Amino acid sequence: MSSEPEEDYVPWIQQFCELFGHDYFVSVSHEFIEDDFNLTGLSSQVPYYREALYTILDYQVDTMEDNGSASNNNGSSGSSPSKADLPNKALLAHSAELLYGLIHARYIISKQGLTAMATKFERNEFGSCPRYYCDGMHLIPVGSTDVPGQETVRLYCPCCNDIYLPSNSRYLNIDGAFFGTTFPGLLVKMFPEIENQCRIRIQKAKKEDFGIRLFGFKISELSASGPRMKWLRQHPISEEEQKEFENCQFGMPLEYRASLAVDEAPDLDEDDDKTMASES
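The line above is the sequence of Casein kinase II subunit beta; the predicted structure tokens follow.
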């Protein structure tokens, strides 16, 4: 009879990953969580860190409600900690979710975590890119910052290098810091097949000449109805285009900067005349 409750018990991590809208998460192994090196610096970011960690690892943790009921039954709290030192159940649940999310962001950039997330990516559990030229490229969850509480999770397309909001509103409550800014780039580099899929889609889009036409003629890009966002899907081919792309990406072209420096150079003759006039 005593074995029945143990069989019905569901670990905390499994419960968290099975919650509504938590499809993007993977189960972090206990070995990873129990390694103190993997949790370096998290104690200062999570309130009631030790209690939250014990909750994730399925240890019994006393809460304010438990302490209150125990003191009422015994008449005095005795050697048990005071209620002020214990979190309530709601705060403990929030701290445990925050701690697990930050641990999750570190776990998915490890070898085991990358493999687990790559399986989800292959199954298209994160959705597909809505752009036509990306041809249904699978998306990758990403955060715009590693600081929790700043922004919700986004989805990154390795083909067009753009970021999208999740199509379902149930994912808009997930903190982007629970996936971090490092994971998408590391996943693409760890699995070259992803880059190969993007390369195939880019080459296919260049070979096929798509676009809106009127009586067989293309619409000019300068037109109000022209393909103004076409540059988002263009990739440099020749060395000249690559140099132009790098100049546009990191700063102004050298020719423009040189002409700008000449135009803004002070006229020494005029300054000398003004100085002499003021002295006289």
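Note on the example: Residues 210 and 216 are 12 Å apart (CA to CA). The chain is about 45% helix and 5% strand.
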